[in-house]
Each structure stands twice: as structure tokens, then as C-alpha cells.
């Protein structure tokens, strides 16, 4: 081969190598472009972009399920509506069913060995994406950077609403128009939503949440974080409320389940609903997060957790009632601790400053550009300067004021219900409305403990009053400071004693003699009204419009400045795909983490004195006897979890990890500690997705639970089919004696 040609191939190899290594990107599933497709094939995908998203034929997207409008992701794994998701995604539902049936399924686990044992879950919905449509041209028609911001916002809202309304197909679909790249692009999402969803199975917490909050957000991990649901539909396979006559939903596509295992470098693709990222956050925003926002959230949550725990440790029934709330508070408490650490350690502030310097230079280099983009960064900086003095108050308002003690939101929601039920003309509560309120009351106190809630209220509000400047707190604090001399305990004594919402007895007493006057005088109702009012007015005089405008211009400019770079939009609870491969990592100097964990680690971590590290005796026995059925690795190990370098975030929980043939190899459930700043800046060498190996899931279902009925429903892939790799990228053909490109790139 002539030397020039050789050099050319090498160059292509080097650039494509780095492209293939760069696994940042949560790509909109309908927008996979040539560059994405080439990268995916280079990594080992044997499917086309059309096999992933196709609106005319069944494609992978039809097996992907959105849970509760973006809370989590799940996937179809049989032709009879069987759904797989994380244990922590069904955690709240399991808790509620456990309390309802007086049977602690969190501790004991639950398995339906026949369909008639499956348990309907209230207020739980799943959605399927029908299609995505680019509606940017219509939404933004006639709008440019000179359009006044208020007009722009009004036009966008009006057009989005019209598009959404005309796309529901007479109410069959739920629709939304979402902004991408900070108002630079708009896409219509069309969903079909099912509400008859039933719990099929979940392992005990000692498997599904093994390692607890100690191991949360960390590798190495040994958690069987999975649960199973089933979707039911009417006779025509359409959505219907719960009914005994409903039939298992027949999906357009379900994922074959690979029993073949994972190896380092194997192709791995994750599809799902990442909730939100801030990859375009400015240096000013990073600084505000590190200095004020994150510490405020962490300090309130810290107190909430300690307070809840002291009550939960006393009484198993209280523990069960608050298990899900506690887990939720703990999850993002630890998240923000890790994020702050990561932002500092990886000098994300400096990284952002460098990008901004380049951006400003680029903007200033051309008159027209300067006019359009030149002041975007300044606008952003002004926004953060104006908001920083209020950030603490803002975080306390949400974390302590609104979501601290449950009585606040309870009073707000139920109080509004009471208000709506009142017939002001007749000056009475009509009987049917009263019946509705009674029903609401019935369901409202099954997961509530007055003693815990009152303790939480007193502790958290005391901290709130102490830490937030007096001119930035809800108006009701004046009453506490005046009439109650600043004594939160005294205020709480009175409030919990008298309030309609403090307990079921009080609520029932109100229903027996309902009067608007009683509501108006209610302290919890007044408290709730006061925090919500402040939440609505906000703090200070920072212009939210300038914030939107500055980011819209910055992101638009950035994409023009690096026009050859494939930017992916921030997560916004729309269906995304991220591709990469099974990878190990180096968490710190001289430390190396393997990409898999095995059964051995479960016993290494076992600690019968610590509830987070109990190993159920049945599991211990199976492990000690190495009774792994057909689910062990070639060398006899049972693989529990594995790592990939996919780009995911919250909302992706429960997402399928899919191999190059479109088969299920794992279930994503977490990120890793060393890259907790990943939602703001992706770190290629550090950021990993933690997934439970599908063979561990099968092992638990089969050997631990004996629920072979569920295994039989699945399409298990037990033999590797030989695939002829497609050519990688459009590069010069490999000639005699050269090392094939594929192998170099798989390094
Ligand atoms: N960090 C996981 C996520 O946000 C949640 C894991 C739940 N487990 C737990 N120990 N809290 O998806």
C-alpha cells in the first residue's frame, strides 16, 4: 500500500477511534443521524437506526415503556404484557400494596405464580411512544431573535397547544410539545397510556435494595434491583381502567432476553426516558450550585432523614409507611453531596469558563454575530448575580416548607378539594361532593404517622427560621414569630391538635360538620397557603425571561461555533438512546474497578447486624452450593451487576441494556460515585452506568422464587448467532496485510 494511503487510513482510524470512545449523548430516538449510525455499527450494533425507531413497523421503541410520565423506564419482555423495571421504580407501589394487604412485601418479596394472583396498582400508568414529529418550523414561524421575549413565549405556547390538541386522535393519545436545546427546536410526542398495571413480582428488599443507601450511587454493586409488572388492556388491546375482564396487553414488540452474558467491550445500548440534565450549564450556574444550592438541599435533607429514621427505627409499621419517602429523600441527598464533590474535583467550573471564553471570542469575531450572541453570557451572569442571594431561601421553601412535613401538601390538596366542593350559592356541601371528600380522606392517612410528621414539622421549620433571612420566608412565619413568640413547637402543638388535616379523626369530624369557616381558620391550611403563595411569587427581581433568552442564544451559538460536533439535547423525559460498550474504569490513582461483580461479593458484604447487608438465607444457600442453574458464566461465576459507559440519568432507571442484536442483557439502575457531576459535565473516562445482569434477574426469578411461569413467557436467547460485521464508517477499504479496522477500534 502506498504510504499516503496508509497514513490516511491511520488518520481515519484515529479520529474514528476517538469518536467511538466518546459516548456522551442521550440521542432523541427519532433523530439518530449518519454519524450516530456509523458509530453504533462501529461499536458492534447489528441493527439499523430504523430497527430502533420506525413509525410504520414494529421497532425497538415499541418495547420501551414510560412509567408514570417519566418517573422511570421499563420494557416489554413477553408477548403477554410482561414488564421489567427496577425494584426502586415499583418501591412505592409495593409499599402501598403491602400496607393495603397487611403483608410486608418489601421485606418478604412477592411473586404471582398465576395471573390471577397479580395485584392491581392504583394510580400507576405506563405509556408507549407512538411517534415523534419535528414541529420546530411551525412553532417558530416568523419568530427570530428580535421578537420580543413575551411575544415569543405567547406564540410558542399558543402554537404548541394547537398542535397538541389536534394530534390526540379524538382522545386516544396523550400529546406533548417539548422544547429542545433551550427553545431552539420543538418536537411533538404522541403517547398511548395504559392504567391497568399489576404487580407480578419483586424480590425482597434484601435483594432488590441490597447495599441500601450505603451502596447507592456506587460501584462495586451487588443489587438485584428489579421488579415485574403486567399491563392489561381491553378486548381490542386498548387502554382501559382496571377490570377483571381486561386481557394482558399484546405489545408491538418485546425484547428477546439474552442468556449469553456480557464481555468487556461488548456493544451496549440503553433506551429510555432520562429526566433532566444540565450539560449546557454556565460557569456561573456551576458556582451557584456548589456554593449555595446544593449545600442548602443537603442540610435540610440531612435533618429530614435523621428525624424520619428515629421514628422508623422504633416501629416496623412506621418504617413500612415511610420506606419510600425516606428512600426518595436519601437518594437525592446523596446525589447532591456527590455532585458537589465531583464538580469541585473535576474542576467543572474551569471547564465551563474555557468554553465561555471561546464562545465570547467567536461571538465577538463578527459584527452580526456580536449583535445576536455577544451579550448572552453577560445576561446569564446577571441572572445568577441577581438570584444568588435568594437561592437558599428558594431551596428551603421547597425542601423544608413544601415537602418537609406531609401535613403541608395534604392540607393544600385536601383544602382545595373542600373549597371546590362548596356550593357558595346554596351555602352548603352537596352530598355527592361530601362523599368524594370522605373517600379522599379514607386513602389519605394510611401512609402517615402524626407523631413523625409533627416532629418533622417542628425540627425542619425551626431550622428554616434560623437559616433563612427573615425577609425571605413565608408570611405565616410572622404569626409564628408574633403570636407564638417564635416557638415552632407551640405553633405545631396547636396546629396538629386542631387542624382538619392532622389526622383521620380530625378529618372525619370535619366531614361530619363541614363549614367553610373551619377551613379558613385551619392553621395547616393557612400555613400551606402561605408557602404556596411564596412559591408562586418567587424571590427577588431576577428576570426569568432573560435566563431563557441567554441560554437559548448561548446553546444556539455554541452549536454553530462547533458545527461539526454532534451535540445531543439535554434530557427532558423524552425517549432517548445512548450507545457504548461494557467497560471497566479507574476510580482514582492506582485503583482499578472490574466491569462485573459476582455472587462472591454478596457474601463478602454480608452483615446480619446491618439491615442494608442482610443476605436472605435461601439466597445464601444457593450461593454456597453454587446452585446457579443455567445462569452462571462460563467459568461458573454468577454475575450480579456490570458496567457500561452509557450516558444515562434519573428517569432511565429500569431501562433495558440491549446488545448488538437487540436483545436484553441487563437492567440499568444507577450511576457511579466518581462521576456524580455527570448531569452537568460528562466524563468519558469516569462515567459509568450500573446495571443488573439479566442472568442474575433470571436466577432470582427461577432459582430463588421458583416463578418459572414468568421465565416461560420470555424468549430466551441461548445461542449466539454468527453475524457478519458490516463495514465501519465510510473509510478507505482495508488492504492486504493491514490490521482490520474493527479490531483496532474495539480496543
Ligand atoms: N440512585 C438510584 C437512582 O437514582 C436509586 C437507587 C435506589 N436505591 C437506593 N438505595 N436508594 O436511580
SSE blueprint:
Blueprint: H1 3-21, E1 27-28, H2 34-43, H3 49-52, E2 64-67, E3 72-76, E4 82-85, H4 87-101, H5 105-108, E5 110-111, E6 119-120, E7 126-134, H6 136-140, H7 149-166, E8 174-180, E9 185-194, E10 196-202, H8 205-208, H9 212-215, E11 227-233, E12 247-248, E13 257-258, E14 267-272, H10 283-312, H11 316-345, H12 348-364, H13 367-373, H14 376-402, H15 406-421, H16 431-444, H17 450-467, H18 476-482, H19 488-498, H20 504-512, H21 516-521, H22 523-537, H23 544-561, E15 576-581, E16 596-598, H24 599-605, H25 617-624, E17 639-644, E18 656-658, E19 664-671, E20 689-693, H26 694-704, H27 708-713, E21 716-717, H28 741-745
Helix pairs in contact: 4-11, 10-11, 10-12, 10-14, 10-17, 12-13, 14-17, 14-22, 14-23, 15-16, 15-22, 16-20, 17-19
Bound molecules: arginine.
Looking at this protein, list some descriptive labels.
747 residues, alpha+beta, eleven-stranded antiparallel sheet, eight-stranded antiparallel sheet, globular, disordered C terminus, binds arginine
Largest sheet: 11 strands, antiparallel
What percentage of amino acids are in beta strands?
A: 5-15%
**Rg (CA only):** 27 Å
Question: Cα distance, first to last residue?
Answer: 24 Å
What is the molecular shape?
Answer: globular
The unique ligands bound to this protein are: arginine
**Total of DSSP H or I helical runs spanning 4+ residues:** 28
User: What class, by secondary structure content?
Assistant: alpha+beta
Query: Overall mean pLDDT score?
Result: 93
Q: Kindly state the percentage of residues in helix.
A: 40-55%
Low-confidence spans: 1-20, 727-747
> Total strand count, please?
21
Amino acid at each position: 500500500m502506498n504510504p499516503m494511503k496508509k497514513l490516511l487510513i491511520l488518520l481515519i482510524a484515529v479520529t474514528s477511534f476517538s469518536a467511538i470512545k466518546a459516548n456522551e449523548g442521550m440521542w432523541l430516538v427519532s433523530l439518530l443521524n449518519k454519524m450516530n449510525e456509523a458509530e453504533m455499527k462501529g461499536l458492534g450494533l447489528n441493527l439499523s437506526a430504523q430497527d430502533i425507531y420506525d413509525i410504520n413497523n414494529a421497532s425497538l421503541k415499541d418495547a420501551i415503556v414510560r412509567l408514570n410520565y417519566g418517573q422511570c423506564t421499563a420494557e416489554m419482555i413477553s408477548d403477554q404484557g410482561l414488564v421489567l423495571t427496577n425494584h426502586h421504580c415499583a418501591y412505592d407501589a409495593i409499599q402501598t400494596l403491602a400496607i393495603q394487604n397487611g403483608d410486608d412485601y418489601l421485606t418478604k418479596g412477592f411473586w404471582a405464580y398465576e395471573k390471577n394472583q397479580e395485584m392491581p396498582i392504583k394510580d400507576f400508568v405506563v405509556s408507549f411512544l407512538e411517534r415523534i414529529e419535528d414541529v420546530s418550523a411551525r412553532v417558530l414561524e416568523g419568530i427570530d431573535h428580535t421578537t420580543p421575549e413575551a411575544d415569543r413565549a405567547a406564540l410558542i405556547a399558543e402554537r404548541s397547544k394547537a398542535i397538541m390538541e389536534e394530534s390526540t386522535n379524538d382522545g386516544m393519545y396523550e400529546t406533548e410539545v417539548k422544547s429542545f436545546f433551550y427553545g431552539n427546536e420543538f418536537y411533538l410526542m404522541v403517547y398511548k397510556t395504559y392504567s391497568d398495571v399489576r404487580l407480578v413480582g419483586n424480590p425482597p428488599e434484601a435483594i432488590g435494595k441490597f447495599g441500601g443507601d450505603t451502596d447507592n450511587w456506587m460501584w462495586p454493586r451487588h443489587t438485584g434491583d428489579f421488579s415485574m409488572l403486567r399491563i392489561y388492556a381491553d378486548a381490542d388491546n386498548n387502554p382501559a381502567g382496571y377490570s377483571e375482564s381486561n386481557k394482558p396487553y399484546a405489545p408491538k414488540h418485546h425484547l428477546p432476553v439474552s442468556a449469553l452474558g456480557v464481555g468487556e467491550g461488548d456493544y451496549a445500548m440503553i433506551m429510555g426516558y432520562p429526566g433532566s440534565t444540565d450539560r449546557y450549564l454556565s460557569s456561573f450556574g456551576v458556582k451557584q450550585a456548589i456554593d449555595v444550592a446544593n449545600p442548602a438541599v443537603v442540610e435540610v435533607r440531612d435533618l429530614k432523614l435523621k428525624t424520619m429514621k428515629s421514628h422508623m427505627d422504633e416501629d416496623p409499621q412506621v418504617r413500612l409507611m415511610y420506606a419510600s419517602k425516606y428512600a426518595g429523600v436519601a437518594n437525592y441527598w446523596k446525589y447532591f453531596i456527590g455532585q458537589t464533590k465531583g464538580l469541585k474535583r473535576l474542576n467543572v467550573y474551569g471547564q465551563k469558563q474555557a468554553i465561555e471564553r471561546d464562545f465570547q471570542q467567536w461571538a465577538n469575531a463578527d459584527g452580526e454575530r456580536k449583535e445576536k450572541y455577544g451579550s448572552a453570557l453577560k445576561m446569564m451572569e446577571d441572572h445568577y448575580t441577581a438570584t444568588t442571594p435568594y437561592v437558599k431561601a428558594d431551596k428551603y421553601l421547597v425542601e423544608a416548607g413544601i415537602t418537609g412535613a406531609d401535613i403541608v401538601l395534604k392540607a393544600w390538596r385536601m383544602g382545595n378539594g373542600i373549597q371546590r366542593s362548596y356550593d357558595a350559592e346554596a351555602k352548603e356541601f352537596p352530598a355527592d361532593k361530601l362523599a368524594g371528600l370522605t373517600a379522599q380522606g379514607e386513602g389519605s392517612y394510611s401512609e402517615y404517622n402524626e407523631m413523625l410528621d409533627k416532629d418533622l414539622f417542628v425540627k425542619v421549620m425551626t431550622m428554616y427560621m434560623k437559616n433563612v433571612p427573615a425577609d425571605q420566608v413565608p408570611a405565616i412565619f410572622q404569626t409564628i414569630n408574633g403570636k407564638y413568640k417564635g416557638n415552632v413547637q407551640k405553633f405545631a402543638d396547636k396546629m396538629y391538635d386542631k387542624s382538619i388535616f392532622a389526622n383521620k379523626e380530625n378529618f372525619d369530624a370535619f366531614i361530619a360538620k363541614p363549614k367553610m369557616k373551619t377551613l379558613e381558620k385551619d392553621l395547616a391550611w393557612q400555613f400551606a397557603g402561605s408557602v404556596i403563595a411564596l412559591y408562586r411569587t418567587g424571590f427577588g427581581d431576577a428576570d426569568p425571561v432573560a435566563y431563557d433568552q441567554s441560554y437559548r442564544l448561548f446553546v444556539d451559538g455554541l452549536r454553530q461555533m462547533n458545527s461539526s460536533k454532534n451535540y445531543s439535547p439535554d434530557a427532558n423525559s423524552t425517549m432517548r438512546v445512548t450507545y457504548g460498550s461494557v467497560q471497566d474504569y479507574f476510580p482514582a490513582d492506582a485503583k482499578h474497578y472490574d466491569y462485573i461483580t459476582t455472587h462472591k461479593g454478596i457474601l463478602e458484604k454480608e452483615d446480619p447486624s446491618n439491615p442494608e447487608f442482610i443476605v436472605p438465607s435461601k439466597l445464601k444457600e444457593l450461593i454456597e452450593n453454587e446452585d446457579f442453574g443455567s445462569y452462571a458464566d462460563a467459568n461458573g461465576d454468577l454475575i450480579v451487576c456490570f458496567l457500561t459507559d452509557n450516558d444515562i440519568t434519573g428517569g432511565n432507571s429500569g431501562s433495558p441494556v440491549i446488545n448488538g442484536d437487540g436483545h436484553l442483557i441487563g437492567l440499568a439502575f444507577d450511576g457511579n460515585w466518581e462521576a456524580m457531576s455527570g448531569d452537568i459535565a460528562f466524563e468519558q473516562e469516569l462515567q459509568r452506568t450500573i446495571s443488573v445482569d439479566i442472568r442474575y434477574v433470571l436466577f432470582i426469578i427461577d432459582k430463588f422464587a421458583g416463578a418459572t411461569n414468568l421465565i416461560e413467557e420470555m424468549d430466551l436467547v441461548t445461542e449466539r448467532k454468527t453475524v457478519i460485521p458490516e463495514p465501519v464508517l465510510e473509510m478507505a477499504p482495508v488492504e492486504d496485510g493491514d490490521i482490520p479496522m474493527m479490531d483496532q477500534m474495539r480496543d
